[in-house]
């Protein structure tokens, strides 16, 4: 049997940090860029949404007069962690338990533009939004100086590039949370997956399925290194092998895969990569075996690419994990859908999610709706097909950090 091929196009150049330096840039620049870009989109939608209402600024509000304002949301949260609070808690005799979610009934939203800010009330639930989202609001100013919201305008799903008709099955395997070197890692289980992907297991039917796999994407958290080695102190010589051993073991296993088919390697929050988004590709010297093959690609996080003109975009999970801390939803798939409708991969960056202090762009803006949107390192595996307008259809995938449900098939979609 011959393995099927797919034309691959890496689109990660927008996430590359080349020549930029930390020279005292202010994070306000990325907010200004985001607001400018999103405001143009929302203003274009207003005539078909509320054509009879004027669009104004926060400074131009008049009490009791219906209007539309566009700005960036700020969520005031009573339980949000503060570095000053952390400093005082370190000196507290009683350690405080850190909650997994920082929402509180007293949370409220504020809308801000270049002219000022106003507290929001009415038909905009704070639980559904986070700091950094740009929206349009229909309402009016009250006598108390608040803005009473009657309706909310989000940018919605971005336009989608039409993909060609797919006449044959091709598969992409997503893997996340391998954690090589941890107590939970099972090398035999991973080897079983490798043997399946490379066509060394099963009958002719299973091998036929394996031959349709055209690419493997490793979506972060691939190795586990003890936290005590990241305290800034010099690592003792006896401990150096304990740091390198998980990476060597991962490299041996990846070499088996790249000898058979192409593979994309993404960094995650626990990998030896930069902390802030976008995480830059893991250095190829870490994978002395796998990097000798031209089928091995070390990619950024977020990662964006095309396979036979089918667009993929995804992260190792930090953006969705951060949304879970500061807002509420039925499941992780709903968080993913919100990022698409907000047209932003990481709306909480840089407020609560670390990112590079860009001054002239916001690389996390979603300008084109992908056909497949994936997130790694989540509690369980889930998929959903999201249908927007006639011209926008995509599948999105949540990857569990285990090997029980790692492979998935990208749905064939038209339009």
UniProtKB/TrEMBL annotation:
Under catalytic activity, the entry for this protein gives:
DNA(n) + a 2'-deoxyribonucleoside 5'-triphosphate = DNA(n+1) + diphosphate
- GO CC list: delta DNA polymerase complex
Which GO BP terms sit in this record?
Answer: DNA strand elongation involved in DNA replication; mitotic DNA replication
Residue stretches making up the DNA polymerase delta subunit OB-fold domain: 26-152
Function in brief? The function of the small subunit is not yet clear.
Would the keyword Protein transport be found if you checked this record's keyword annotation? Answer: no
Q: Which domain of life is it from?
A: Eukaryota
* Catalytic activity, EC: 2.7.7.7
Top-level enzyme category = transferase
Classification via CDD domains: MPP_PolD2_C (cd07387)
DNA polymerase alpha/delta/epsilon subunit B domain boundaries = 172-381
- Which stretches are annotated as coiled coil? none
One GO molecular-function entry? DNA binding
**Where mainly found?**
nucleus
Please give the name of this protein: DNA polymerase delta small subunit
Say yes or no: keyword Transmembrane present: no
Q: Which UniProt keywords apply?
A: DNA replication, DNA-directed DNA polymerase, Nucleotidyltransferase, Nucleus, Transferase
Q: Where is the protein localized?
A: Nucleus
> What family name appears in the similarity comment?
Belongs to the DNA polymerase delta/II small subunit family.
Self-association state and partner proteins as the record states: Heterodimer with subunits of 125 kDa and 50 kDa.
């Amino acid at each position: 049997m011959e393995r099927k091929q797919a034309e691959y196009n890496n689109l990660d150049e927008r996430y590359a940090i080349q020549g930029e330096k930390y020279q005292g840039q202010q994070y306000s620049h990325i907010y200004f860029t985001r607001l400018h870009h999103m405001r143009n989109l929302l203003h274009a939608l207003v005539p078909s949404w509320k054509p009879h209402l004027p669009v104004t600024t926060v400074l131009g509000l008049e009490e009791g007069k219906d209007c539309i304002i566009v700005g960036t949301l700020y969520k005031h949260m009573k339980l949000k962690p503060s570095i000053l609070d952390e400093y005082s808690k370190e000196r507290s005799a009683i350690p405080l338990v850190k909650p997994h979610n920082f929402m509180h009934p007293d949370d409220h939203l504020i809308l801000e533009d270049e002219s000022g800010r106003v507290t929001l009330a009415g038909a905009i639930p704070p639980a559904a939004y986070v700091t950094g989202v740009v929206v349009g609001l229909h309402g009016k100013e009250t006598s108390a100086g608040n803005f009473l919201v009657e309706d909310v305008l989000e940018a919605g799903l971005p336009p989608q590039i039409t993909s060609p008709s797919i006449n044959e099955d091709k598969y992409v395997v997503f893997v996340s949370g391998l954690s090589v070197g941890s107590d939970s890692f099972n090398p035999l289980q991973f080897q079983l997956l490798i043997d399946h992907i490379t066509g060394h297991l099963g009958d002719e039917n299973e091998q036929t399925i394996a031959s349709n796999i055209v690419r493997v994407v490793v979506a972060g958290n691939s190795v586990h290194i003890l936290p005590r080695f990241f305290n800034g102190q010099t690592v003792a010589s006896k401990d150096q092998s304990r740091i390198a051993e998980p990476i060597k073991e991962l490299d041996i296993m990846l070499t088996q895969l790249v000898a058979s088919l192409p593979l994309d390697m993404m960094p995650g929050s626990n990998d030896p990569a930069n902390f802030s988004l976008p995480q830059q590709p893991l250095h190829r010297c870490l994978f002395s075996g796998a990097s000798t093959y031209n089928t091995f690609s070390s990619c950024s996080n977020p990662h964006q690419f095309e396979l036979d003109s089918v667009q993929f975009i995804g992260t190792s999970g930090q953006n969705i994990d951060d949304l879970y801390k500061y807002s509420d939803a039925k499941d992780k798939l709903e968080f993913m859908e919100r990022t698409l409708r907000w047209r932003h991969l990481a709306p909480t960056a840089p407020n609560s999610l670390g990112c590079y202090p860009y001054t002239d762009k916001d690389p996390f803006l979603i300008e084109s709706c992908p056909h497949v949107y994936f997130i790694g390192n989540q509690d369980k595996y889930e998929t959903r097909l999201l249908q927007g307008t006639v011209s926008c259809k995509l599948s999105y995938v949540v990857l569990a950090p285990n090997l029980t449900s790692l492979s998935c098939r990208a749905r064939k979609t038209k339009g």
